[in-house]
Amino acid sequence: MSRTVFCAYLKKEAEGLSFQFYPGELGKKVFNEISVEAWNLWLKKQTMLINENRLIMTNPEHRKLIETAMIDFLFNGKEIEIEGYKPES
């Protein structure tokens, strides 16, 4: 059975994540306030950010950059600009 959350990103009730994908307090917040749909949108953005900026996830500064972008995207309504990426029109 799936759970429902009021998604902070979509601003509506939606299917919640099946488990906590991210550690710590931020992970709990994501689990409780972010839907499967919003998380999947974030994962696409995250992959593009990592690839376009050649981020290395073992680098603490790079991880912090990704975490900040995740908070901005999921909770603060900010669009993530990816240098060098041009969306298909």
TrEMBL record:
It holds the Pfam family Iron_traffic. InterPro entries: Fe_traffick_prot_YggX (IPR007457), Fe_traffick_prot_YggX_sf (IPR036766). Coiled coil: none annotated. Gene3D superfamilies: Fe(II) trafficking protein YggX. The keyword Iron applies. Keywords: Iron. The keyword Iron applies. Belongs to the Fe(2+)-trafficking protein family. Could be a mediator in iron transactions between iron acquisition and iron-requiring processes, such as synthesis and/or repair of Fe-S clusters in biosynthetic enzymes. Monomer. NCBIfam families: PRK05408.1. This is Probable Fe(2+)-trafficking protein. It comes from Thorsellia kenyensis. The lineage of its organism: Bacteria, Pseudomonadati, Pseudomonadota, Gammaproteobacteria, Enterobacterales.
